[in-house]
Amino acid sequence: MAKQAASKGRTVRGSRTGRPIMALLDLLGRRWSLRILWELRAKPLTSRGLRTACDEASPTVLQARLTELREAGFVELGETGGYGLTALGRELCETFMPLHRFAERWKKS
């Protein structure tokens, strides 16, 4: 059952709570969600480009995460067929990416 996401009545599929911040953390906690946002921060990428950047992700999982991020309003499909961040997605990256970098360093140690 879908619950309300961070803003503007968008929904996040599979959210277990009705609280917006919990729905957002639920979405970002899913494997590959933060990685997709990280890869899109510099430039739009096609599905193939994202698969190359996230080489360990299965295409099915990657597509599911892209769909969730699009439904939540963080990622959009551009006119040229590439995925890019929305203004909300960019704001999210600025806020949460220091956590992503910390998690990556922690995982390596």
Could you name the key traits of this structure?
globular; Arc Repressor Mutant, subunit A; two-stranded antiparallel ribbon; 5 helices; single chain; 109 residues; mainly alpha; 4 strands; two-stranded antiparallel sheet; 55% helix; disordered N terminus
In short:
With 109 residues, this protein is mainly alpha-helical. Helix content is 55%, strand content 9%.
Give, in order, the helices and strands.
EEHHHHEEH
Specify the helix fraction band. Answer: 55-70%
* Unreliable sequence segments: 1-7
Please give the largest β-sheet.
2 strands, antiparallel
| CATH topology title | Arc Repressor Mutant, subunit A
Q: So what's the overall shape?
A: globular
Number of strands: 4
Strand order across the biggest sheet?
1-2
Number of domains: 1
Counting DSSP H or I runs of 4 or more residues, the number of helices is 5
- N→C terminal distance: 38 Å
Strand content: 5-15%
- Rg value: 13 Å
Which architecture per CATH?
Answer: Orthogonal Bundle
Q: CATH class, please?
A: Mainly Alpha
Task: Note down, in words, how this protein is organized.
Helices cover 55% and strands 9% of the residues. It has 109 residues and is mainly α. It has one domain: Orthogonal Bundle (Arc Repressor Mutant, subunit A). The strands form 2 sheets. Strands 1-2 form a two-stranded antiparallel sheet. Strands 3-4 form a two-stranded antiparallel sheet. Helix 2 packs across helix 5 (87-108). The longest helix has 22 residues, at 87-108. The termini are far apart.
